[in-house]
Design brief:
Elements (H helix, E strand, L loop, with lengths): L1 E6 L6 H12 L2 E4 H14 L11 H13 L3 E3 L8 E3 L2 E2 L7 H11 L2 H17 L11 E5 L3 H5 L5 E6 L2 H13 L7 H8 L13 E4 L5 H25 L9 H8 L13 E8 L6 H9 L17 E7 L2 E7 L10 H15 L2 E7 L6 H13 L3 E6 L21 E3 L8 H13 L6 E2 L6 E6 L6 H9 L17 E7 L2 E7 L12 H16 L2 E7 L6 H12 L3 E7 L6 H13 L8 E4 L11 H13 L4 H14 L12 E8 L4 E6 L5 H15 L7 E6 L6
Parallel strand pairs: 1-6, 1-7, 2-6, 7-8, 9-11, 9-12, 12-13, 13-14, 16-18, 16-19, 19-20, 20-21, 23-24
Antiparallel strand pairs: 3-4, 4-5, 9-15, 10-11, 17-18, 22-23
Helix pairs in contact: 1-9, 2-3, 2-4, 3-5
Length: 707
Amino acid sequence: MIRVAIDGPAGVGKSSTSRALAKYFEYAYLDTGAMYRAAAWWCMSQGADLDAESVDERAITEMVGELFTGDHFDIGVDPDDPFVAVDGKDISEAIRDSAVSTHVSKVSNILPVRHLLIAAQQAYINREAEAESFSKGAGVVAEGRDITTVVAPDAEVRVLLTARPEVRQARRTGQSAQGVGAENVAERDRADAKTTSFLKAADGVTTLDNSELTFEETLDQLVHLVDEAVEEQEYSRYAANLEGYDLDEEDQALLAGAVDDEGGARRQKAVGVLAVVGRPNVGKSTLVNRILGRRAAVVEDTPGVTRDRVSYDAEWAGTEFKLVDTGGWETDVEGIESAIASQAQVAVGLSDAVVFVVDGQVGITSTDERIVQMLRESGKPVVLAVNKVDDGANEYLTAEFWKLGMGEPYGISAMHGRGVGDLLDVAVDTLAKAKKTSGFLTPGGLRRVALIGRPNVGKSSLLNELAHEERSVVNDLAGTTRDPVDEVIGIDGQQWLFIDTAGIKRRLHKLSGAEYYSSLRTQAAIERSELALVLFDASQPIADQDLKVMSQAVDAGRAVVLVFNKWDLMDDFDRQRLERLWQTEFDRVTWARRVNLSAKTGWHTNRLASAMRDALESWDQRVPTGKLNSFLGRLQSAHPHPLRGGKQPRILFGTQASTRPPRFVIFATGFLEHGYRRYIERQLREEYGFEGTPIQISVHIRERKKK
């Protein structure tokens, strides 16, 4: 049985909230305050003078004793009909009269009276543990004075419901306008405080201030507290099945631990944007990695490795900023090189300051001079970095770059870190003096979505379509994207962090150079994501490589949405071919949502948001232990495990050890065959959904302790 005890001062809505909570869980409802009011009403009806300066406490105590120990009093515990009756007469309205409200504290402040009422309240609460009670042993919600500390100090849920005095008085005044007797809550607080404490929670009691909460919000928080208590009680009840079995330290930790969920969010913070630009192969990405302190950008001693503008959260000397790596800027180029140069120019336009990187070993080139012209036209402050000045003996190489007219050239070695600190000091100071802050640190609370697939299936095209602008370089050349590109995109009123990745090659060990490191970054991006959008080129036959990419996301335990792109290029025959493949090649992921769309035209891209939300909701879903074990019990009864060696394995207990993805641990008396585990998974999906997420099931085989 679950006992919920709710205390608090007048005007916080204890009665209405407690009744709603009892109705929600089909529990009994006990208004202990009504019992005090009934006692006051009874004494007044028996002729007691409660207006006297000194009331006869002994006489009052005897009157109240007669009311509750005889057959006079009755109170309903049905939240839909919480009546109060004396000698068969319903006095529910009478006890709300202003005269009763005025005198109830006179009666309740008499200690012997309180002892009588506390005993009566405890009797009503304990009665609900019986199978013949109103709640059939499920639980009771009791509200009123001393309920959390004296009446039910060991209740499973104890709450002090409170609110600011002016809010409580306004609520009481509003009730008065509806015909309910008004009272001054401050006077009521002073009177009640003589014998009880209800403005500060005792140890173990949860304080819930509903001054700024609606009725529904208050109820939601109470429901959450009760759900937690039910889960804890059910967990203990089913875990008792393991008594008498040998359990190791991992088992004990699992039984004692909580669900291992990820979480935490960081507020979006405005920061300056620092763009790193220069012609190809001057060491921009090497400098970016040096600033970040990790190998984030793909680096190779070949021009044109970086193609997109890629943003990173960075920090130097306590100053946070957005660092943007760009592809090499060139003039008079066509095709993909032209798109790369355009992205670099866009990065300059969106930045607050620029680090212009040149090659000290090569000297000034005509391309450097054209970049200077572009930077002057942008009007952005520029810090000039002369790279590949590896030691003091080569410092003279920087002198030539004064000719560019971009201010003092700073000699650095991005490879070895020489001079980078001094460069950053100047760059951060330049950002601080900028007119505005154009960027935001990536909020930690955003759902992270990785776009994955083999090369040229349209990942960058889909990213650009969702963003409604050219965020990534798109070209018919397979493998255009190399660095994972993080972009915050708003869809249907929700912000998402999309990670555009390089196409995953079939044989990683046969790759070299930029392609090898791009594939490693893609694998890391999958691990960093929560949801994988697995893209397929629907206009082409499904290859083994496609299925391996899909398996990589599933094996990583990520939520999955399957996206069949280029649907506009399909004819009826192609669609029938794909449907046949869906029945045969995709049997491992029949639980995943599937979206057919065209990134090029935008057709059906509006269906992605709901599919992503559903998949992540399943990825986060948790089945309460009580419901899980009840489900396993029904499943085992209807379809027991086949006999193995003359013995039949039996499930003792099951728990969901974690979410993201949902991982279930089953304690059994013997090995559960793979087919039976698959059966359990299918039944779990049929019962609880889990659409769009893999499910992991592990079995712990345990034997009885030897006597």
